[in-house]
Write a structure and sequence with these properties.
6 helices, alpha+beta, globular, about 160 residues, six-stranded mixed sheet
Amino acid sequence: MTRSLSEEDYTDPAERKFISDINRVGWNVTNVLKVSGETGPDWSFSCGLYHTFHHPEVVIFGLHSDNSTRIINTIGKEVSGGAKFEPRAESNSILEGYPCTFREVAIHNYHDYLGWTIWFYEQVPFPVLQCFWPDKGGFYPWDARCNAFVSESQPLLFKSS
């Protein structure tokens, strides 16, 4: 179940913009920025990819919001063109000069990181992939050789298997 996609059903400007984005392009990108004194990385996530294209939503951590928005929009454009990103698959078409990979987000992490998406779908679960970016050596955060900044910037929200 999802919310109504009629913008007239919403009086709150943020809700209207959110629904308008999904109607206009098929998804919305939400950026979550830490406020002064908070610790942890910033993150961004999609809403609408699953509704519009039957593709998992995407969350990414640790990059400037402009970069995260651009990455999620690139993913969205590829998905709208028929691409499917799968857990554990690498893609060279999203980040300039670097691959990225995806992992399925464990449901117990949804409430901490996916507020607007939970609001939109009105229930859990819906599929979500976390997009991971490597350090300059090509190592991802779960690899002991990964640069500490890169590892600390990307919490591992995926299901252990």
